[in-house]
Design brief:
Helix content is 40%, strand content 21%.
Length: 290
């Protein structure tokens, strides 16, 4: 049986202006899985994330962590936030310390760790995010991409069980986006439960183990990426595009250029494996698209 580390049960939330952001939303995130949350702007993704570590409290329904209902006392929330970390989409909303080292040290210090442990965690977090050379830099002088990596290091240094990324590759160049995606894989390989929201359907398709689609503050669909992204009617209903790999795969299938028993590929390498070695036309088509 799957072990669910985070569960939302009929969660409702209204903002002070009476905007309904979450509408009886229910979902369960399996421990150790790579989970993508998709949806158009205003669908409720960020509001959901702010509930997952207690920043927001639902007006109806409940949240559970590791099978226990979330409590909202100061002590209980402090414990929850040690286990569930969020990297916000806008790094400027997360950064507040004068220097990079001070910024990344803040969380571990407040966890009551020893000086040596704090320094070790800060060093490891900077190494994993590739920002060792920024250690003494003022945070307000950093580029957007550098700030983004510092906010990721912030959370890594606290070593939570669950790490939530709100649009982690937004506004990053392709090289940095690839680096961040690789880091997400590394975290998953260490046993972390990684949850991300993204508008990048290609990233969600190739990276995630499980996909949730949110529409109008509720889960409109969930499942394996290859199932979600092959349902054309569902994608249209939820304003989602198809990943390029699926489009190319279906085109190659229609032209008889792939092996007959090939499953839906999840990466460029798997797509190439579906094309017979002697089929130069199919391989040329793939190279011309990506």
């Amino acid at each position: 049986m799957p072990e669910f580390i985070i569960e939302a049960v009929n969660v409702e939330f209204n903002y002070p202006d009476r905007t309904k952001a979450l509408n009886k939303l229910s979902m369960a995130v399996e421990k150790g899985k790579k989970t993508a949350v998709l949806g158009s702007n205003g669908a409720g993704k960020t509001t959901l994330f702010l509930h997952l570590n207690g920043i927001l409290k639902p007006s109806g329904g409940c949240l559970r962590f590791a099978g226990k209902e979330v409590e909202y006392s100061r002590k209980a929330l402090a414990e929850l936030r040690k286990k569930v970390g969020i990297v916000f989409q806008d790094p400027d909303s997360q950064l507040f310390s004068a220097s990079v080292v001070q910024e990344i040290s803040f969380g571990p210090i407040n966890m009551g760790l020893s000086r040596d442990e704090v320094l070790a965690r800060v060093s490891q977090a900077m190494e994993e995010t590739g920002i060792e050379q920024l250690s003494g830099r003022p945070t307000h002088f950093l580029s957007y991409g550098q700030k983004k990596r510092v906010t990721i290091a912030d959370i890594l240094a606290m070593d939570p069980e669950v790490i939530i990324f709100d649009e982690p590759t937004a506004c990053l160049d392709p090289r940095m986006s690839e680096h961040v995606a690789g880091l997400l894989d590394q975290l998953s390989q260490k046993g972390k439960t990684v949850i991300l929201s993204t508008h990048d359907v290609d990233l969600a398709f190739t990276w995630a183990d499980h996909v949730f689609v949110i529409n109008g503050g509720a889960v409109s669909g969930q499942g394996k990426p290859e199932d979600i992204f092959r349902d054309r009617e569902f994608l249209i209903k939820n304003s989602l595009e198809r990943p390029w790999i699926i489009d190319v795969f279906d085109e190659l299938v229609s032209k008889g250029l792939v092996l007959g028993d090939c499953p839906v590929p999840r990466s460029r390498e798997e797509l190439l494996d579906c094309i017979p070695a002697g089929e130069s036309h199919g391989r040329t088509l793939l190279k011309s698209i990506k």
